[in-house]
């Protein structure tokens, strides 16, 4: 019996080789010696054929020390056989081939022939038949060299063969690192695609350490080519960094207090490590293990295992001791690693220590009680500390209604040497478009060397507007049977949606607020917000005078009453004069159509002072005339509110006393007294009143630049105001503006300073927002003085009509003239366009003096032939503007010139500016036509 003592031998390769002679007849793709299974079992040799065809098994075995041969054993496909070789079976040798020689050669090998011829030297050995037409070559990799991949990413290389194989070639890919995957794991080549590179993708997975990895991919070829195995080195770059993971990097503790933080490595260390903790200040103590006596300052973290696991946060206790000073401190706890890839790695936790030896006190505010500030004005608040602080103290200010009330500055710093010195805060209340008083609360919080409770100051903003109605016109003259119209809107944004009710005083008068609705409507709705029924849009009211049976001219009025919000029960009226169309015509009714003479034309008095002005009629009335006087400023008191003149006393002046009350601010004030003829309430005159404040005031910012002729946002002109800061530090800018029609004041300031050497661009909408949201659309253009303690300049640009961009900044500035005997200011105006030209020229003269009013402005004008014409304007108050179109100037001068044929010299006792603008044809651009004013 043949006996074999080798252990199990299993050979299973998957390569297939096709011969060049008979490829189409092949059914078996494996060589015979590759698909058999041979096993020793106690001297029994078991051979199993797992090929698709019958095989012949040839072998020689050593029996009783003699090498003997056996006949070939034929084994059918999927069958087994046992050979009894005796008790001594070693050494032995065998050769396996297909029974059918064509199948054998088709598999790529010759037959066994007379093999084996001996038993070998030891154990059991196999004789491999010689190959048939097998090509020699190599496996080609591209690119060459190592493949470097970031952890968690993938990379590629390609594989091809150097020579055309004699049959199908299988290239198997194997690797060793479980964190590296290869796809695919085998590639197939033929003689038609051996040169075509096939891509292999190598992918890596993230791990929990910070160590770079590597692998070696081995590529082995089998089948129709003989090629040595090749390797591809893969380098894996770990994207993690060995560093410490801290639950916090900063702590805030008081003296005598303790806290904790967590610590662990951020990645698995490459070896067991030790972490040491030290403090930069002896007042800070750390303990890494409170269960042990004393304070431990080290921690151990292990690479593997549950004990001292590297990925578990460890809690460190921090204790702050007491010291003898009263200073807050900042102390670092330094963390240093030892071992593996954490050698020398460091981190720190910063502990902010609040000293418990601080002084205690309070923030002192002056004045006491609620702070009153008028809308559009400023008030002051003084701040100090009650107790010397133990270190510098910062006081931060904030307020609830920052859109309406601005604070400057918003932070203060106190020291032990200046804590009692009051530092001033300026509160500025912006103008708004409503008539409602508002409130605010300022909160002051101290930090640093003083423990003090937060302080608050209540602020009440007193609105300078009064809810009322704008009527245009407020007097209508109609014939019987005729109709007319007037416009109405609220003067200011209402505090809620409102309704306006119109009631004629007689059935002979009919009103209709909506001609598109059947019948006569007598109400109008105005909404607080939104475009529908917008409060600031004029609404037109139709008025019809019916025929009556008498022949008398008559007077009526339409009563206007508000309902809702701050317009509840607010009233106004429109006077209606109806001329009867029935003959005969009676005498004219006793209606005074003349005017009022008031002297002086501008009234100035000091705060707390008293003065008077005189009133008379400018023409004789046919009956008694009553003049009503009204004002809006509560700080002004009129001794009389009405004056009655008779046909015999109309030329006699009546003196009316006026008193200016003391107030708490340091600001000058103003008001306008309106003179109306009753009962029709026809406005006949208005008197400007200026009150000079007698309280000491801080040094006011100087006027550094002018910005004139600023259009309202609702106009068609696109305006940009650019303000430049022309110094090495930032610039603060205050706006002081007035309208050209009625001199309404608009004040405000930039919310943020302009950076050093920087610029700020503002649209007209921005200026409206900064000066209190109130529109000046009904009052012409806006002229602004720009005040600042810093150096600034300004430019106004206007894009209008066809989009022409025009510099609208240049102005004519008056210069002193006339020597020392009489200080006169003069400005020359050159080349004024004719009133008959297609241009639309206009002239603006603005009194910009800071000391006095331009009580009168004289114009001496010359045509090209040297003829002189002159006119005088009286009563130009400080900050107000005369607006003249060339047609109006021609009427006053009594001449109409041609082309650009008029030059004027303007004189006044106070400084002023002049600007000439012309809206040209074509695109309608507004062009600045101003000269320099320098003679």
How many H/I helical runs? 3
Structural class: mainly beta
Could you tell me the strand content as a percent range? over 45%
The total count of strands amounts to 76
| Main sheet record | 5 strands, mixed
Detailed description of the structure:
With 935 residues, the protein is mostly beta strands. It is built from three helices and 76 strands. The strands form 18 sheets. Strands 4, 5, 6, 8 and 9 form a five-stranded mixed sheet that branches. It is elongated and about 170 Å long. The N and C termini lie far apart (140 Å). The model is unreliable at 1-28 and 931-935 (pLDDT under 50).
Task: List descriptors.
935 residues; mainly beta; five-stranded mixed sheet; 2% helix; elongated; disordered N terminus
